[in-house]
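From the pipeline queue, job 12 of 40. The input is one protein chain; the requested action is below.

Action: predict structure.
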Amino acid sequence: MVITNAPTAASNAATYALTYASGLSSTNYTINPASTSVNYTVNPAILNLAISKTYNSDAGFNKDNTYTITGTRYNSDALPTITGGSAATSSPNAATYNSFISNTLALSNANYTLVGGTVAATIDKANAYVIIGSGQSSTYGSTPTINYSYYSTATGSGGAVVDPSVGLANSGM
């Protein structure tokens, strides 16, 4: 039987309009093609994603983050890369998340998708350095007050001041 526009194992992910062309016979019927075509969809193959970045108070991920894509590829295809879009976890806090609350990450090969695959999105802890202010003193017998700030660099110069309300806690002296 011949079907016009029939996809094969090497056909790209797309929708194909199928119609009967020829090849069937019957002693009791005259075989005719239908008057309209039927759509047949080849869906993209699903791949898995492990992606990571350092904490920056944002739940978003993009193609610039470190990532690994795994899964079965077909027809000797190269491993696709992330070419654009973004995805977000449910929280910007340092942790590993197994899903995205939104995902528009696009792959370099439209025959593959990350939708429906496994996700391991890791936000690694960022470094925060305690810089004790200079020139401080107290009087013997009084409770000292020691002023300090959190910075993103060990010297405190050129680094951003880290907001202590985003997960930093004083464990006491």
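Job complete. The first strand starts at residue 2 and ends at 4.
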